[in-house]
Design brief:
Number of helices of chain C: 14
Structural class of chain A: mainly alpha
Helix content of chain C: over 70%
CATH class of the largest domain in chain C: Mainly Alpha
Largest interface: A-C, 106 and 104 residues
Number of domains of chain C: 2
Helix content of chain A: 55-70%
Main location (chain C): membrane
Structural class of chain C: mainly alpha
Order of helices and strands of chain A: HEEHHHHHHHHHHH
Distance between the termini of chain A: 17 Å
Keywords (chain C): Cell membrane, Membrane, Transmembrane, Transmembrane helix, Transport
Strand order of the largest sheet of chain C: 1-2
Order of helices and strands of chain C: HHHEEHHHHHHHHHHH
Protein name (chain C): Carbohydrate ABC transporter membrane protein 2 (CUT1 family)
Shape of chain A: globular
Largest sheet of chain A: 2 strands, antiparallel
Subcellular location (chain C): Cell membrane
CATH topology of the largest domain in chain C: MetI-like fold
Strand order of the largest sheet of chain A: 1-2
Radius of gyration of chain C: 23 Å
Radius of gyration of chain A: 26 Å
Shape of chain C: globular
Oligomer: heterotrimer
CATH superfamily of the largest domain in chain C: MetI-like
CATH architecture of the largest domain in chain C: Orthogonal Bundle
Number of strands of chain A: 2
Strand content of chain C: under 5%
Largest sheet of chain C: 2 strands, antiparallel
Strand content of chain A: under 5%
Chains: A mainly alpha (about 300), B alpha+beta (about 375), C mainly alpha (about 280)
GO biological process, one term (chain C): transmembrane transport
């Protein structure tokens, strides 16, 4: 409902009734936010334009419009498909693991006892650690010469496990860090969701002696679905753009083993100074995230309406 | 001293028209109750006067000066809200004092005076969440009254207080409101409250004033069948009739009995009508005779000051009769006869719902 | 939920213990490591009990780092200082810009407002490099590259959507009648905003501010691209420090501890609001 209109300086003056209503105020208030918006949209459009150009910082005289050239090049470029495959694999593996683990922990902590609350607060600490710093922590722990984790797997007879520096275990290692940082995100959202569910269905099921598995699959999961969908989409969107952990851990290596979208685009830009290619890569990533974020925002708005009591 | 004048005010929200050409004037010191079913546009009207949104068309004047387009704080209006709208982070005292732009000592003395009047001196230091609903409501009233506004708007202020307090306030409010010279517009959904508090009633139905008159006039001479049904508990009894005029008298068959309905205005019969008779105007006895409708008692509800009988007339119509508790009532399943005086009958046009007389029913107030 | 069965309780106990170990161990271990000399760190098998040393912290704070190759000047405290300045300034600016806008979006439903709110929201989920890379070229032309202001400005990408959407929710939860009542009592719009709306949305504003601070502090990629050494926050600084110091593992651990302590403490302080902040206001804890 709209309500106030201000900034009329002459309330008494003109006798003409109904005066045109001046509603500048909302616009004035949101002007700064609008500026920030513009500051985002201008570079975004610029990036879209760059992606249609041959544009290399070291060869400025070659710059020119080449249409979809950069995109077409990707189709036959194994490096692109490697990036695509690694990004999707990374995203799928992290989100599935974090969802399963997060849901499991949330179920364990469901009853709001003091102990459970203390545990859930402690589990938030990894999430509040900067991901780049978290990668450094794990780098220290997986150091081949003194890392505690290298020592521990050694106890189990696995010697010479090289973690992130070995192509065969690099993905596993960064996924491990991602899971360490972000599982608490899923956990805390699902825990809040679980605790907000109405009690009657569960009490009724308990009275009727319904088996626990039935309660879980037929009552808990469906009721929790909006939270699960929102949390997973949230993670999906962040995970497919993962940069900090991978860059801090291996800069995309070893070789091109962890060359996800944003790391690849970063290197295209700063190492190979190929702005056009970098922009095209990011536009493709944007397209993917844009589709996902539209779905996400729909679900998110529904949850938000529920949280604010006007569902 | 300022008069509130609403001239042909209209407001639409999409397809809904909560105000459709509303006109009303409230004199200084007068209390006008805006009464209507929920969704009829009462709150929208108050909010346009208060300046929360502007009318699409028409004008609103306070003391002869248009306030349309003026910000709320410059309209000289005080308002009490249905949900109290107290400032949760301020004490009752600061809530009340927020309406004053004055120096410290004057604020203190005026807050003291108004809170004494409203009997809330002992809770002035409390935060709103520590107050009972009654105290909240009095605090909100004090806040609206303290600035001596030209126009006082009360949006169903007794809606959220308990029954006992509502009854007390109904007696207390008219005195309180008449202390000043404010033009008071009082919105309510409770017809008893409206009749108890107001000098005049404005009945709002579907964004239009269906009738503006004194409470007694509206009860005795409702302009339409819709208004007749809004006032009275139990509600008015209705029956479909086709009156005929004979020797200057109207009469009609009601459930097999010929009932006299008073003097005919003209020679012509009014056609198909709704007959309305208030439950307290019915007499019930076991004696048959002329002008008595045969009926059967279905149920009796004793209600202390009266007894309400649910009757089924011979043609199946169900009517209610409200009788004095000491009157002979009979028992459920008894066969009885129902009578009413010809001047108790109201006739409404079937097609338009408007009352078509007789006009003589005005009782001395 | 099986509340009672013994097997169930044992299972839950074991599971919770494993979970706690997995999530807490790295933090505890790095914390312990920061109080060890390099010799202690390199000892195999590792020991839980050791004689703590503050040498790592002393070296970081004094900025003098002794390595095998000789003395090294390090500016980690400078990074820490930068993080404080950048994150605080970014949050202040975001509150200044975001709170009035959030109020406008909550109270006046207007198309431009919704467009701004949703644009900022959707760019919260767009690849940051997409905006950052062209922006870095613009910044070079505008002379904003490697300035505090330039970095604070792009931090709005993180802080503003958060503040806008959380605070908007708080404003929406305040009954407009309360503000109407204040205005009818003779106060201007501005007074109603500062004395009624802002105090009542206070907890939400504080929570959104704290969370934005954490997220700005934890950000890595923005400063990586837009800041050179003397403007870098700890996230970028720590990585550079690892490269520079080589094998001074104790100092690296100490630098990590110093980098994460402020946000972890803030998170503990604001934990009541974390759920709401993490979900951008969609889930209340």
């Amino acid at each position: 409902m709209s309500m106030v209109q201000l900034l009329q300086t002459n309330a008494q003056a003109a006798p003409a009734k109904p005066r045109p209503r001046v509603r500048l105020l909302p616009y004035l208030l949101s002007l700064p936010a609008l500026l920030v918006c513009v500051a985002i949209l201008v570079p975004f459009v610029t990036a879209a334009v760059y992606s249609l150009q041959r544009y290399r910082l070291n060869l400025p005289y070659l710059r020119g419009f080449i249409g979809a050239g950069n995109y077409i090049d990707f189709l036959s470029d194994p490096a692109f498909w490697n990036t695509f495959r690694i990004s999707i694999t990374y995203t799928a593996v992290t989100v599935v693991l974090e969802l399963l683990l997060g849901l499991g922990i949330a179920l364990l902590l469901r009853r709001p006892t003091r102990f459970h609350n203390a545990v859930s607060i402690m589990l938030l600490l990894p999430l509040m650690t900067a991901p780049a710093i978290a990668a450094l922590m794990w780098k220290l722990m997986t150091n081949p010469s003194f890392g505690i984790l290298s020592y521990l797997v050694g106890l189990f007879g696995v010697t010479d496990f090289k973690w992130a520096s070995d192509p065969s275990s690099a993905l596993f290692t960064v996924v491990l860090v991602d899971v360490w940082v972000y599982t608490p995100f899923i956990m805390i959202l699902l825990l809040a969701g679980l605790r907000s569910l109405p009690r009657q269905p569960f009490e009724a099921a308990a009275l009727d002696g319904v088996p626990a598995s039935f309660v879980f699959f037929r009552i808990t999961l469906p009721m929790l679905a909006p939270y699960i969908i929102t949390a997973s989409l949230f993670r999906l969107l962040d995970s497919i753009q993962q940069f900090d952990i991978i860059y801090a851990m291996t800069q995309g290596g070893p070789g091109d083993r962890l060359m996800v979208f944003q790391v690849q685009a970063y290197l295209e830009f700063f190492q190979y100074t190929n702005v056009g290619r970098s922009a095209a890569l990011l536009m493709i990533l944007w397209l993917i995230t844009n589709i996902l974020s539209n779905i996400f925002i729909k679900n998110w708005l529904r949850l938000r309406a529920r949280a604010h009591g006007h569902a | 001293m300022a008069r509130l004048e609403i001239n042909a005010v209209s407001k639409a929200f999409g397809a809904a028209r909560p105000a459709d050409g509303l006109s009303l004037a409230v004199e200084p010191g007068e209390i006008v109750a805006v009464f209507g079913p929920s969704g009829s546009g009462k709150t929208v009207l108050l909010r346009m006067i208060a300046g929360m949104f502007e009318p699409d068309d028409g004008d609103i004047l306070v003391g002869g000066r248009s306030v349309v387009g003026a910000p709320p704080e410059r309209r000289g209006i005080g308002m009490a809200f249905q949900n109290f709208a107290l400032f949760p982070h301020m004490t009752a005292r600061d809530n009340i004092a927020s309406g004053l732009r004055a120096s410290g000592s004057e604020v203190a003395s005026r807050v003291a005076a108004i809170s004494k009047l409203l009997k809330i001196e002992h809770v002035l230091g409390h935060a709103p969440r520590e107050l009972s609903n009654g105290q909240k409501q009095r605090t909100a009233l004090a806040r609206a009254l303290i600035g001596n506004p030209d126009v006082l708007l009360l949006d169903d202020p007794l809606r959220n207080v308990d029954a006992k307090l509502r009854y007390e306030m109904r007696l207390e409010l008219p005195n309180l409101l008449r202390r000043g010279t404010a033009a008071v517009l009082y919105v309510t959904q409770d017809y008893r409250e409206a009749m108890a508090i107001a000098d005049r009633l404005a009945v709002l139905i579907d964004g239009r004033f269906a009738q503006v008159a004194t409470p007694a006039d509206i009860y005795a001479q409702p302009a339409s069948v819709a208004i007749a049904r809004l006032f009275g508990d139990p509600t008015i009894n209705l029956a479909e009739v086709s009156p005929v005029a004979e020797h200057g008298m109207l009469s009609a068959m009601v459930a097999g009995a010929r009932m006299r309905l008073g003097a005919a205005d003209g020679a012509a019969s009014p056609g198909s009508c709704w007959l309305g008779v208030r439950p307290e105007d019915l007499a019930v006895s076991s004696a048959s005779g002329d002008g008595a409708i045969p009926a059967r008692i279905l149920a009796i509800t004793p209600m202390h000051e009266k007894a309400v009988l649910l009757l089924r007339l011979a043609d199946g119509t169900e009517w209610l009769a409200a009788l004095p508790p000491d009157a002979p009532q009979g028992a459920a399943d008894d066969s009885v006869f129902v009578r009413f005086a010809s001047d108790a009958a109201m006739l409404f046009d079937r097609a338009t719902g408007l009352r078509i007389g007789p006009t003589h029913r005005l009782k001395a107030a | 939920m099986e509340h009672s069965s013994l097997a169930g309780r044992i299972f839950r106990g074991v599971a919770l213990t494993l979970i706690l170990i997995f999530f807490m161990f790295p933090i505890v271990w790095i914390f312990l490591m920061s109080f060890q000399t390099n010799e202690q760190i390199l000892r195999i098998p590792p020991r839980i009990l050791f004689e703590p040393t503050f040498a790592n912290y002393e070296a970081l704070i004094s900025g003098q780092l002794r390595t095998a190759a000789g003395n090294l000047q390090i500016s980690f405290m400078r990074n820490l200082f930068n993080s404080v300045v950048l994150s605080s300034a970014a949050v202040l600016l975001a509150l200044l810009l975001g709170v009035p806008a959030a109020y406008a979006f909550a109270r006046f439903k207007f198309r431009l407002g919704e467009s701004i709110a949703f644009t900022l929201l959707s760019f919260r989920f767009a690849p940051p490099l997409l905006v950052l890379l062209p922006l870095s070229l613009y910044y070079q032309e505008l002379g904003l590259n490697d300035t505090y202001f330039g970095i604070v400005w792009v931090y709005q990408l993180i802080a503003l959507p958060l503040i806008l959407w959380i605070v908007r929710g708080y404003f929406e939860d305040i009954s407009p009648d309360i503000e109407h009542a204040y205005r009818l009592a003779g106060h201007s719009w501005r007074e109603a905003f500062t004395r009624i709306a802002v105090p009542l949305a206070g907890p939400g504003i504080a929570a959104a501010g704290l969370l934005s601070f954490i997220f700005c502090w934890n950000n890595f990629v923005f400063a990586l691209i837009l800041a050179s050494a003397d403007k870098q926050p700890v996230t970028v600084g720590a990585l550079a420090f690892v490269t520079a110091s080589g094998i001074q593992y104790g100092q690296i651990a100490a630098a990590i501890v110093l980098s994460v302590t402020p946000t972890l403490l803030l998170a503990l302080y604001a934990q009541r609001y974390l759920v709401e902040g993490l979900s951008l206001g969609a889930v209340k804890g």
